[in-house]
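User: Let's play a game. I give you a shape written as C-alpha cells, and you guess the letters that built it. Ready? Here's round one.
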C-alpha cells in the first residue's frame, strides 16, 4: 500500500475546518477530519484508529485529496442521477410486501428479494439492484419472519364486534364486589416445541427429544383488574379440569358476589358436566363466551405464549416432572397473588 504524505497549508486547514463545521453530511465531516489528521503527519493506520474506520478507506480518501484537492472529498453519488428509492417507491413496496405473490400473478406463495425486485420493476418501471432493494426493505422496517396461522371467525363481523364490545364493557365497568377473569387451558408437551434461538455461524444447536411424548395440562384464570392467577394442574384436559378451576376461583374470591369468566368455545366449557357444576354455584359464576377463534381477546393467552417462549420451547428436560417443575416456577413467578399455589387435580 503506497504511503501518502500531505503537507497542508494554513489556508487549506482553515477551509477544511470550516467545511467540517458547516456540513450536515457526517461522511464529509469525517473525511475532512482525516485530512486534518494527515496534515499533522499521522499515518493512515493512526488516522484509521482515530476516526474509527478501516485503513484502506483512509488511503482512498487521501489519494482522492492528493489528486483533486478538497473537491475530491465531496460525495460523488450526487452525480448518479435522481434517487430511485423515493417516498412513492417505498410506499408501494410496503403495500406489495403486505400482500402475497399470488396477488401479482405468481404461483409462489412467499416473497424473495429477486421476486420483489421483478414486481417493483413491473409496477414502477424503476429497476434497482437486489442490494438496493435490501436497503429499501430495511428502510420500511420489513423483516423475514414466521407467519402466524389463524382461523377465520365464522360469525359475521357485526355479531363479532357486538360480542367483543359487550365483554370489554363488562371488564371496564364491573362493580367492586364482582370479579372478572380470563380463563383458558394450555398443553404442556414433554417433546419440546422447536423455536428460533441464537447460534454461532456454521453451528446448529441440537435439542434432544425424549421420543415418546407425554402431556399435562394447566387450566388458569387471570384477574382482569389485578392480574392475580388461579391455576389448576391435571393430566387430562376435560370437563373435570374446567370444573376444578371454577371451584378454585370460588375459593380464591370468597367475598365476590359474582365471578365473571371470559373464555373461548372449547367443548369442555359447555359440556353437561360443566353445566351441572355451574348450577351448583347458584348463579355466582357466570360464563361469557368469546366469538370463535378470537384468541387475542383472551388476555391469559399472552401468559401461555410467554410460558412456551421461556419454558417449553427448545427445553432439555428428560422427564415430565422436571419440565413441570420449571412450569410451576414460571407460573408462580408471574402470579401477583401471595401466597400462591397451583392446585393439582387427581388423575
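Assistant: Ready! My guess for every position:
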Amino acid at each position: 500500500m503506497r504511503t501518502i504524505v500531505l503537507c497542508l497549508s494554513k489556508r487549506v486547514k482553515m477551509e477544511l475546518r470550516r467545511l467540517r463545521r458547516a456540513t450536515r453530511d457526517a461522511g464529509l465531516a469525517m473525511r475532512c477530519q482525516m485530512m486534518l489528521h494527515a496534515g499533522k503527519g499521522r499515518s493512515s493506520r493512526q488516522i484509521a484508529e482515530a476516526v474509527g474506520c478501516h485503513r484502506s478507506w483512509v488511503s482512498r480518501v487521501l489519494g482522492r485529496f492528493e489528486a483533486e484537492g478538497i473537491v475530491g472529498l465531496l460525495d460523488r453519488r450526487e452525480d448518479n442521477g435522481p434517487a430511485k428509492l423515493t417516498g412513492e417507491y417505498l410506499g408501494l413496496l410496503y403495500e406489495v410486501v403486505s400482500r402475497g405473490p399470488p396477488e401479482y400473478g405468481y404461483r409462489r406463495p412467499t416473497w424473495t428479494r429477486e421476486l420483489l425486485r421483478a414486481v417493483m420493476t413491473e409496477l414502477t418501471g424503476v429497476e434497482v439492484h437486489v442490494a438496493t432493494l435490501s436497503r429499501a426493505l430495511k428502510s420500511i422496517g420489513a423483516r423475514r419472519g414466521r407467519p402466524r396461522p389463524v382461523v377465520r371467525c365464522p360469525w359475521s363481523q357485526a355479531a363479532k364486534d357486538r360480542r367483543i364490545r359487550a365483554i370489554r364493557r363488562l371488564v371496564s365497568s364491573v362493580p367492586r364486589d364482582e370479579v372478572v377473569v380470563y380463563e383458558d387451558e394450555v398443553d404442556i408437551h414433554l417433546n419440546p416445541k422447536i423455536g428460533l434461538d441464537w447460534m454461532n455461524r456454521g453451528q446448529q444447536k441440537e435439542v434432544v427429544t425424549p421420543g415418546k411424548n407425554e402431556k399435562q395440562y394447566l387450566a388458569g384464570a387471570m384477574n382482569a383488574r389485578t392480574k392475580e392467577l388461579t391455576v389448576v394442574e391435571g393430566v387430562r384436559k376435560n370437563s373435570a379440569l374446567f370444573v376444578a378451576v371454577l371451584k378454585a376461583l370460588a375459593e380464591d374470591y370468597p367475598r365476590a358476589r359474582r365471578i365473571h369468566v371470559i373464555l373461548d368455545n372449547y367443548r369442555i366449557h359447555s359440556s353437561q358436566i360443566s353445566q351441572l357444576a355451574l348450577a351448583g354455584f347458584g348463579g355466582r359464576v357466570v360464563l361469557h363466551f368469546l366469538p370463535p377463534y378470537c384468541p387475542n381477546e383472551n388476555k391469559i393467552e399472552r401468559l401461555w405464549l410467554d410460558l412456551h417462549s421461556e419454558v417449553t420451547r427448545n427445553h432439555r428436560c428428560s422427564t415430565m416432572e422436571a419440565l413441570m417443575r420449571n412450569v410451576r416456577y414460571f407460573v408462580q413467578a408471574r402470579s401477583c397473588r401471595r401466597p400462591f399455589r397451583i392446585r393439582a387435580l387427581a388423575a
